[in-house]
Design brief:
This protein is α/β, with parallel strands linked by helices and 503 residues long. It has 15 helices and 26 strands. The chain folds into three domains: 82 residues, MurE/MurF, N-terminal domain (Udp-n-acetylmuramoylalanyl-d-glutamate--2,6- Diaminopimelate Ligase, Chain: A, domain 1, 3-Layer(aba) Sandwich), CATH 3.40.1390; 230 residues, Mur-like, catalytic domain (UDP-N-acetylmuramoyl-L-alanine:D-glutamate ligase), CATH 3.40.1190.10; 150 residues, Protein-Tyrosine Phosphatase, Chain A. α3 packs across α9. It binds ligand UAG, adenosine-5'-triphosphate, 2,6-diaminopimelic acid and magnesium ion (MG).
Length: 503
C-alpha cells in the first residue's frame, strides 16, 4: 500500500488532488490542493516545489512556503542517492527528488490527469507570429461557435477572457494547470505559444501535442542561446516529439530545411514555395493587400476558395494561413473557415490602428526584432501616402546584438525615426541607446527621447495627416520595466488619450 501523506490536519476537499510519485520510484501519494513553484504564491494545502533555478535556489524558500501553509514540499535532491528521502519539518513531509526541474511537466501531467489529452492542443513556435497565430486560431474556433483557449505572451485563458501571465510559456507546472482549467471550462482546443526558453527548459515536455506549428526563425534571444544554430535546435525540439501533425512555414529557410526531414509535414506558403513532399499543403494565389486587409485564392489539399481577412501586412497573411493549416489538420471544415475569416479581428497590440481625422495614423505593434520591425515598416509603407515614422527602443537585459540591427532597419525603412525606452530593466537606458546608435549610418538624423510618452507626443506634433507613425516594441504591454520595478505605461492608452485630447 502506498503511503498517502496529507499531514498537519489538512482536510481533503473537493479541490484537492492526488500526486502519485510511483512513476519516479517513490512509494508515496500526496493529497494537496495544488503544486506551486513559487513560495510567494503558496496557500494552505499546497505542495511547494523547490527547484534550483538559473538565478536562485528555490530550496532557500522552503521555510517561507511552510509559513504560508504548504502541507508538503518536493525538494530538488543533489544526488540520486537522496532521491525519495523524506524529512519532516513540524510534521510536514519534505521529499527529496533527483531531477525535479526536468520532471515538472510530467509530475503535473500526473497530478492533473493528462489534461492535454482531453482537448486538441496546438503548439506554435518560431521567432515572430506566435501570439498572433494562437489568437487567430482561438478567434476562428470561437467564430465557428466553438470554445477555445490560448496561452502566451498576451495572457492565458479562453479567447477574449485572458489572465496576464509572467512568461510566454509558463513553468511545467503552470502550463498543465492552465490546460486543466481550460478543459474544465469546456474548451475543445487550446492554442499555446511555445518559446525556445520553454522548450530548452522542458516546460512542455510531457504535453500531448496534436499540432506543432513553425512560423519563422530570425535573430532574437541570442543572449540566452548563444548562436542561431543553438536557437534553431531549441525550436526544433517541439517537432521531434510524438506530435500528430507538423505544420511548417516553407517561406522560411529553416521551415524549408525541416520539411526535408519531415516529408509528411503540412507545408504552407504565401509565395508558392512548396517543395516536393507527401504531406498536405496550403498556398496563396493572387495575394493582394489594401487598407481593408488582404485577400487571396487559397489553394490547399482540402479544397480551394477565396480567403479574405482584415489583418494588415504580408506577415499576417502568413499567420492566417498558418492558423488555417492547423485547424484543417484537426478536421475543421474548409468552407466554414473561409466563410467566417472576414470576421477575424486584429490582435491586441499587433498592427493595431488608431486614427483620428486630421491626424497621422498611429499603429501600435509588438515588433521587437530586426525582422519584425522590417516587416512591420514594409507592410505600412504600402498604405502610407505621407511620411512613415518609427518610434522604437530595445529591451534591457536582453540580446544586445539586435540593437544596432533594429536601428539599421528603422533607418532604412522609415522616413523619421525616434529612439525611445523599451523596458531598460537593470541596464542604464543611455547604454542601450548607445548600442542602437552604433548601427546607424547617420546617427545625428535620429531623435532620442527616452520618455515614451514624450516621444509619441513629439512625433504626433511634427507629423502630417497623411503620415503613419509606427510605435513598435510594446504592443499589449501595459508597463515599463525600469530597474526591477514595473511602472504602469501603455502605448495604446497613451495614443488614445492624445488623440482624444486633440478633438
Ligand atoms: C532565465 C529563465 O528563463 N528563467 C525562468 C525560470 O526561472 P528559474 O527556474 O531559473 O528561477 P529563479 O529565478 O532562479 O528562481 C528559482 C526558484 O525559486 C523560486 N522562488 C524565487 C523567489 C522567491 O521568493 N520564492 C521562490 O520560491 C522561483 O519560483 C523558482 O522556482 O523558470 C521560471 C518558471 O518557468 C520562469 O518564470 C523564469 O522566467 C524568467 C522570469 C524570464 O524572464 N524568462 C524569460 C527569459 C523567458 O523565459 N522568456 C520566454 C520567451 C519570451 C518571448 O520571446 O516571448 C518565455 O517563455 O517567457
Ligand atoms: N509571421 C510573421 N513574420 C514576421 N514578423 C511577424 C509575423 N507575425 C508578426 N510579426 C511581427 O512580429 C511582432 C510580434 O508578433 P507576435 O507577438 O505574434 O510574435 P511572437 O512570436 O508571439 O513574439 P514573442 O516571442 O515576443 O512572444 C508583430 O508585432 C509583428 O511586427
Ligand atoms: N517577450 C520578449 C519580448 C519583449 C519585447 C520588448 N518590449 C522588451 O522588453 O524587450 C522578451 O522578453 O524578449
Ligand atoms: Mg508571443
Amino acid at each position: 500500500m502506498p503511503r498517502v501523506l496529507n499531514t498537519k490536519g489538512f482536510e481533503m476537499n473537493s479541490s484537492c488532488r492526488v500526486l502519485s510519485l510511483h512513476a519516479w520510484n517513490i512509494d508515496i501519494e500526496l493529497a494537496v490542493n495544488t503544486l506551486i513553484i513559487d513560495s510567494r504564491k503558496v496557500q494552505t494545502g499546497d505542495c511547494f516545489v523547490a527547484i534550483n533555478g538559473h538565478a536562485l535556489d528555490g530550496r532557500r524558500f522552503i521555510t517561507n512556503a511552510l509559513k504560508s501553509g504548504a502541507t508538503a514540499v518536493l525538494k530538488e535532491a543533489d544526488s540520486q542517492a537522496e532521491h525519495g528521502h523524506i524529512d519532516y519539518i513540524d510534521s510536514t513531509p519534505i521529499i527529496s527528488f533527483f531531477g525535479l526541474n526536468q520532471a515538472l511537466s510530467a509530475l503535473a501531467d500526473n497530478f492533473y490527469q493528462s489534461p492535454s489529452q482531453q482537448l486538441k492542443l496546438i503548439g506554435v513556435t518560431g521567432t515572430n507570429g506566435k501570439s498572433t497565430i494562437t489568437q487567430i486560431i482561438a478567434n476562428w474556433v470561437t467564430l465557428l461557435a466553438g470554445k477555445a483557449g490560448v496561452m502566451g505572451t498576451i495572457g492565458n485563458g479562453l479567447f477574449a477572457q485572458l489572465t496576464q501571465a509572467e512568461n510566454t510559456t509558463g513553468s511545467g507546472l503552470d502550463v498543465q494547470a492552465e490546460i486543466a482549467r481550460q478543459v474544465q471550462q469546456g474548451a475543445e482546443l487550446c492554442a499555446m505559444e511555445v518559446s525556445s526558453h520553454g522548450l530548452i527548459q522542458g516546460r512542455v515536455s510531457a504535453l500531448d501535442f496534436d499540432v506543432a506549428l513553425f512560423t519563422n526563425l530570425t535573430r532574437d534571444h541570442l543572449d540566452y542561446h548563444g548562436d542561431m544554430e543553438t536557437y534553431a535546435d531549441a525550436k526544433k525540439i517541439l517537432f521531434q516529439g510524438a506530435v500528430k501533425h507538423r505544420v511548417l512555414n516553407v517561406d522560411d529557410a529553416y521551415g524549408k530545411m525541416w520539411a526535408q526531414q519531415w516529408p509528411d509535414a503540412i507545408q504552407f506558403s504565401v509565395q508558392q514555395n512548396l517543395s516536393t513532399h507527401t504531406g498536405a499543403y496550403l498556398y496563396c494565389d493572387d495575394l493582394s493587400f489594401d487598407t481593408g486587409g488582404f485577400s487571396c485564392e487559397l489553394k490547399t489539399s482540402w479544397g480551394e476558395g477565396k480567403l479574405q481577412c482584415g489583418l494588415i501586412g504580408e506577415f499576417n497573411a502568413s499567420n492566417v494561413v498558418a492558423a488555417c493549416a492547423s485547424l484543417l489538420a484537426l478536421g475543421y471544415d474548409f468552407d466554414a473557415l473561409l466563410q467566417v475569416a472576414p470576421k477575424l479581428t486584429a490582435v491586441c497590440g499587433r498592427m493595431e490602428l488608431f486614427k483620428q481625422a486630421g491626424q497621422a495614423a498611429c499603429v501600435v505593434d509588438y515588433a521587437h526584432t530586426p525582422d519584425a520591425l522590417e516587416k512591420a515598416l514594409q507592410a505600412l509603407r504600402v498604405h502610407c501616402e505621407g511620411k512613415l515614422w518609427c518610434i522604437y527602443g530595445c529591451g534591457g537585459d536582453r540580446d544586445t546584438g539586435k540593437r544596432p540591427l533594429m536601428a539599421q532597419v528603422a533607418e532604412q525603412f522609415s522616413d523619421f525615426a525616434v529612439i525611445t525606452d523599451d523596458n531598460p530593466r537593470t541596464e542604464p537606458a543611455s547604454t542601450i541607446v548607445t548600442d542602437m546608435l552604433a548601427g546607424l549610418a547617420k546617427p545625428d538624423a535620429v531623435q532620442v527621447i527616452h520618455d515614451r510618452r514624450q516621444a509619441i507626443h513629439w512625433a504626433m506634433s511634427q507629423s502630417a495627416a497623411d503620415d503613419i507613425i509606427l510605435v513598435a516594441g510594446k504592443g499589449h504591454e501595459d508597463y515599463q520595466i525600469i530597474g526591477v520595478h514595473k511602472h504602469h505605461y501603455s502605448d495604446r492608452e497613451t495614443i488614445i488619450e492624445m488623440l482624444d485630447n486633440q478633438q
